[in-house]
Design a protein that fits this description.
With about 280 residues, this protein is α/β, with parallel strands linked by helices. It folds into two domains: about 80 residues, Leucine Dehydrogenase, chain A, domain 1 (Rossmann fold, 3-Layer(aba) Sandwich), CATH 3.40.50.10860; about 130 residues, NAD(P)-binding Rossmann-like Domain (Rossmann fold, 3-Layer(aba) Sandwich), CATH 3.40.50.720. It is about 40% helix and about 15% strand. It is built from ten helices and eleven strands. The strands form three sheets. It has a six-stranded parallel beta sheet with strand order 1-11-8-7-5-6. Strands 3-2-4 form a three-stranded parallel beta sheet, sandwiched between helices. It has a two-stranded antiparallel sheet with strand order 9-10. A hairpin with a 7-residue loop joins strand 9 and strand 10. The protein is globular and about 55 Å long.
């Protein structure tokens, strides 16, 4: 048995085209302010990718680059100005921020109606309550992937490995919504005997940020495996000096799973696609 490899790029393209069509029908151009503090290479790459996707979808972006020594007060003032700017529909502050800036303070300062990342406590709270809100892009993208490939979630046991506020926690609350109706187990660094849980999973989502954490013998035969990990592993033979590795040992997992996402080309493209959907929604609100 060899798993079907889920083409995240193709599904993301379909989702992006849908967002572009919605944007075209609006009387305003959906516009996202993208704020980058410092010059973290990974963050710079992510921001460039987001801005390119916005342009291709016929949406606007306001590129704001700030030096690494920008004060928290200065960043809060900028966010207040963007909150008040009617021509800006969404605000995205690229994380992580320099250590001297409190990320929680920054996230909480963004108007929840412009919080297209879905990280504001108001949106997180609405997600828990099952209300309409901006859903964090990666968890939402995972759910769309499962739907697009026809995976039945109702009554299925989903096991999430990783409890971050960006993926694990919001995904847990998304999967237990009645229209999705999965039974969910959330594992983390305090979980004892991790393989005993992962082997029960009909749907296994690896989001721990630990390269190669999930081996083939930790996977139930025929499970759907979603690898969220994007880990930069040093490799002198690679052009950039590193390779991207997932949390799952792909070569082992592909022999056990029924479906599996690759890294790269799986969940990653869906994250940006769902961001575009959120920006359109912000322009409608």
């Amino acid at each position: 048995m060899s798993a079907i490899i889920i083409d995240g790029k193709a599904i993301a393209l379909k989702t992006r085209l849908d967002a572009a069509e919605k944007a075209k029908r609006l009387s305003v151009m959906p516009t996202l302010a993208v704020v980058l503090v410092g010059e973290n290479p990974a963050s710079l790459s992510y921001v460039t990718g987001k801005e390119k996707a916005l342009s291709e979808a016929g949406m606007g972006s306001r590129d704001i680059r700030l030096p690494a020594d920008t004060t928290e007060d200065a960043l809060l003032k900028l966010i207040a100005d963007l909150n008040a700017d009617a021509t800006v529909h969404g605000i995205l502050v690229q994380l992580p921020l320099p250590r001297h800036i409190n990320e929680e303070h920054i996230i909480e300062a963004i108007d929840p109606k412009k919080d297209v990342d879905g990280f504001h406590p108001v949106n997180m709270g609405k997600l828990v309550l099952g209300e309409d809100c901006f859903i964090p892009c990666t968890p939402h993208g995972i759910v769309v992937l499962l739907k697009e490939i026809g995976i039945e979630t109702k009554g299925k046991h989903a096991v999430i490995v990783g409890r971050s506020n960006i993926v694990g926690k919001p995904l847990l609350n998304l999967l237990i919504r009645k229209n999705i109706n999965a039974t969910v187990t959330l594992c983390h660094t305090g979980t004892q005997n991790l393989p005993s849980y992962t082997r029960q999973a009909d749907i296994l989502i690896a989001a721990a940020g630990s390269p190669g954490l999930i081996s083939g013998d930790m996977i139930k035969e025929g499970a759907v495996v979603i690898d969220v990990g994007v880990n930069r592993v040093e490799d002198a033979t690679a052009k950039k000096g590193f390779r991207l590795k997932g949390d799952v040992l792909f070569d082992e997992a592909v022999e056990k799973a029924s479906y599996i996402t690759p890294v790269p080309g799986g969940v990653g493209p869906m994250t940006i696609a769902m961001l575009l959907q959120n920006v359109v929604q912000a322009a409608i609100l």
